[in-house]
Design a protein that fits this description.
alpha+beta; five-stranded antiparallel beta sheet; 5 helices; 9 strands; 30% helix; globular
């Protein structure tokens, strides 16, 4: 009898799916927000580097596209860290604005040879075979200045951050997604798992 019970236990252990508790926090509790703010303040001037390590996706190469997942948690952490570096604290209004946000921000850094090169770029998500368009999209351009201040022939002269905002109501914040960048009729694909982000 005990062997049957043990067998049933192992069957349940290995075959019953467990709910995925990891993933982007859409509805932050006061504790969640407090933890993010505290961690940001502790990181201080290192907060940008910390978030790059934990929220970045894409290629490591200098001129290859890469990006950042900017969740409510990471935004609270980022802002509190930058303010702590200046001896300031996050205000309640700033905290509430981030917490009440209805969109997930995804930024992609791109490189090109003219100042407005990324204005025509489009980004969408694919999740479980469904295409999800952003609520908003914009591109911020800047001249690319390497450390030596000399632009090597054949390399991009400009960089841009393409910012997109996806409604939390249209995505699954606990599942994998494909981020699709459409540029000059070409597609660049990034596979991300939202379960890896907080």
């Amino acid at each position: 009898m005990s062997k049957i019970i043990i067998t049933i236990f192992f069957c349940l252990l290995f075959f019953v799916p467990c709910p995925n508790v990891a993933g982007i926090l859409v509805n932050l509790t006061e504790k969640d927000a407090g933890d993010a703010i505290k961690l940001g303040e502790e990181q201080g001037s290192n907060v940008t580097e910390y978030l790059e390590r934990h929220y970045r996706f894409g290629e490591e190469d200098v001129f290859e596209e890469n990006g950042m997942i900017r969740t409510k948690w990471s935004k609270l952490m980022m802002l509190s860290g930058l303010l702590a570096e200046k001896g300031r604290k996050l205000t309640e209004q700033e905290k509430e604005r981030i917490i009440k946000s209805t969109d997930l921000q995804i930024d992609i850094r791109t490189f090109g040879n003219k100042i407005d090169f990324a204005n025509e770029y489009k980004i969408h998500l694919v999740q479980q075979g469904k295409i999800i368009e952003p609520e908003k999209i914009s591109a911020d351009h800047a001249a690319y200045l390497p450390e030596k201040k000399i632009v090597t022939p054949g390399f991009p002269k400009y960089r841009a951050t393409v910012r997109t905002y996806f409604s939390y109501g249209k995505i699954n914040p606990h599942e994998k997604a494909e981020i699709v960048l459409v540029k000059n009729k070409k597609k660049v694909l990034f596979e991300v798992n939202f379960a890896d982000y907080k």
